[in-house]
Amino acid sequence: MTRAAKQQTARPGSSQVWLPAMKAKGLEISGTFTRQVGSISMDLQLTNKALQVMTDFAIQFNRNSFGLAPAAPLQVHAPLSPNQTVEISLPLNTVGSVMKMEPLNNLQVAVKNNIDVFYFSTLYPLHILFVEDGKMERQMFLATWKDIPNENEAQFQIRDCPLNAEAASSRLQSSNIFTVAKRNVEGQDMLYQSLKLTNGIWVLAELRIQPGNPNFMLSLKCRAPEVSPHVCQAYETILKN
């Protein structure tokens, strides 16, 4: 699978056109990624904008950074007639072949039907990979934060976030970013947080929230610092949606 269509970032809950009909002989594919109770899925909408019936669908992923792969075949139970749309939730796992992608969250996909094979690529939000047992024990957090070299620390600003510390903590926890400890330092709320990716990489965070100031400061420490910008993007998406 070599050809890759234009990349688009997936925002949770909002479906995006990944493969326009004019590039796929009338097949339009849009979708989004979700994680619910430990299960990752790719929620697809297939629309037939051609004049002939479509059958024999199948899907395949290229090797990718976190081994994302379909956990089941792409099942379209009836032929897809012209102007018809079908919605399919495709379960994914993370036991596929791994190859570091650029950008890290790039996913290249091939879809076939009775007409041809079509290719597209999309960017998945990293928080579909945040696992449910990502809460680090407090002493372990302190030791790990000290142990990770300072040059692995990245700092970001999250702008225009209307939440207070409690609401932010609760919303992040619903996406498996866990608050390990909380302190108030000179009127600033400091949340110390941890998350773990499906491949076992831990990310530690310090989120500073000044009451009345909608701009948060986020410091991230990780042994694989290239994931930090994508984790920051996940914070942005979770806190603002």
Question: What does it look like?
Answer:
By secondary structure, the protein is mainly β. The chain folds into 2 domains: 16-124, Immunoglobulin-like, CATH 2.60.40.1150; 138-240, TATA-Binding Protein. The chain is 13% helix and 38% strand. It has helices spanning 138-147, 165-173, 228-240; strands spanning 16-19, 27-36, 39-48, 58-61, 69-70, 85-93, 106-112, 117-123, 153-158, 178-185, 188-196, 202-209, 216-222. Strands 1-2-3-6-5 form a 5-stranded antiparallel beta sheet, with no helix packed on it. One of its GO terms (cellular component) is endomembrane system. It is found in: Endomembrane system.
List the helices and strands and how they pair.
Elements: E1 16-19, E2 27-36, E3 39-48, E4 58-61, E5 69-70, E6 85-93, E7 106-112, E8 117-123, H1 138-147, E9 153-158, H2 165-173, E10 178-185, E11 188-196, E12 202-209, E13 216-222, H3 228-240
Antiparallel strand pairs: 1-2, 2-3, 3-6, 4-7, 5-6, 7-8, 9-13, 10-11, 11-12, 12-13
How many structural domains does the protein architecture include? 2
With strands numbered from the N-terminus, the spatial order across the biggest sheet is 1-2-3-6-5
Radius of gyration: 20 Å
Strand content: 35-45%
- The amount of helix comes to 10-25%
Which structural category do the helix and sheet elements fall into?
Answer: mainly beta
Low-confidence regions: 1-12
H/E element order: EEEEEEEEHEHEEEEH
User: Which CATH C-level class of the largest domain is it?
Assistant: Mainly Beta
CATH architecture assignment name of the largest domain: Sandwich
Total strands: the figure is 13
Q: Profile the largest sheet.
A: 5 strands, antiparallel
Taking the alpha carbons of the first and last residues, their distance comes to: 34 Å
CATH topology of the largest domain: Immunoglobulin-like
State the helix count.
3
Question: For the residues shown, what is the average pLDDT?
Answer: 94
The backbone outline, from C-alpha atoms, is elongated
Keywords: Membrane, Protein transport, Transport
Subcellular location: Endomembrane system
Domain Clathrin adaptor alpha/beta/gamma-adaptin appendage Ig-like subdomain: 11-121
Organism: Phyllostomus discolor
